[in-house]
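Example 3.2
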Amino acid sequence: GRDTKLRTDAWFAVFDQAEVLAYPEDMIETWTEYSQEQYARSAAKLDMKYEDFLAEYGVTEAAISENAKRYVKSYLVATAIMQEEGIDEDDQVYRSKKNELLSSSGYASEDAAVANGISSENIDMTVRYYLACDIILDNAKIQGDASAESVEETQEETPEESVETVSENTVEDTQEEYTEEETYTEDEENTEEENYDEDYNEE
């Protein structure tokens, strides 16, 4: 829907511009194992061996490693955005978002989700992703409102006949602060969110 597109567009506008200077080895290892487990589960569902599944679908170990780096980058970017707002995993905002996401996925608690095969790392990543997107969109809205107020003040001081038509500020307009205009394919828009939510939403 529109909300999903706004969220993914806002996320990629920041994510694609971010540069990671160093990838922590322990995090790379964690998310490499996570990716391998994801493929192993998919192979099991198809009653295939892990190696056969990778060969059948053209998945290489290099691709798995690259996927792990994207997970780590996502974690670092989302965490940096949260830290700018003074939010960490002990904050009420974080706990509320986690409970909201768990509830919407049909889980009464994190323990219930973990018992159903959802890793704590994936839950944490999902919460950070959604919080970061909320912050990006909230900041974009504030900037958009401020721009609208500035336009209104200008209009009050300018003869009506000389005022040019000003389009309504939208999240897409305010994204220019984060990145130059870019276009994303439908698959690219959904990649990050699918990565975080695929297991999280299974029951």
